[in-house]
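To: structure subgroup
Subject: Chain for Friday's discussion

All,

I'm putting the inputs and outputs inline so they're searchable in the archive.
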Amino acid sequence: MSPETLLEVFIILFIGMGPVKVLLVYMELTHGLDTSVRTQMARRVVTVAGSVAIGLFALGAFIQQLLHFSIGALTIAGGLILLLLGLKMVLGSAGGGGSEHPQKDPMSLATSPLAIPLMLNPIGIVALITFSSTDLVIEEIVAILASIAVILLIDYIVLSSAERLGRFFSPATVEVLEKVLGILLAALAIELMLSGLADALGIGTGA
């Protein structure tokens, strides 16, 4: 795998597994919690997302063949889920400031929605299953696994620093930024669905 290809794979996985999409929601859900609980949640988020990611990379091709779905169909489904998530971020807590969250177990929130589908989002899921369905040599497999490990380490460092980062943002600011992120996620979701539809219909695949 050339350095350029490795960088491209890393960027795709970082978009699909990085901390950008999860950080603001994590800061909102963990606001006011003890540091020990925050640490446990950060560890749970990274552990769950990492375990699912490795599982998809190892078994994605088998799952695809077993359930008989195409990458295009998976991409459309992933885009739809991402769109619903983005819309919920924009509209779901309007006027409520996330009032539904205190009744939930923090560890449950760490699993969903934080680990799945925020940290390991539909883009990452599609990418991992695509990689799994590709004939790879051992060096490429090691490179992808190393990229996953590095990204998970970055995720943990960022989430572990969220309490310090939160000192620079008021809860109202975090909520506004979350809604802006929701709009961007919705736009990304539509792009993902259009890409999946083009793939499913064979548009742009021929010369």
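Points worth raising on Friday:
The CA atoms of residues 25 and 178 lie 7 Å apart.
Confidence is low (pLDDT under 50) at residues 94-99.

D.
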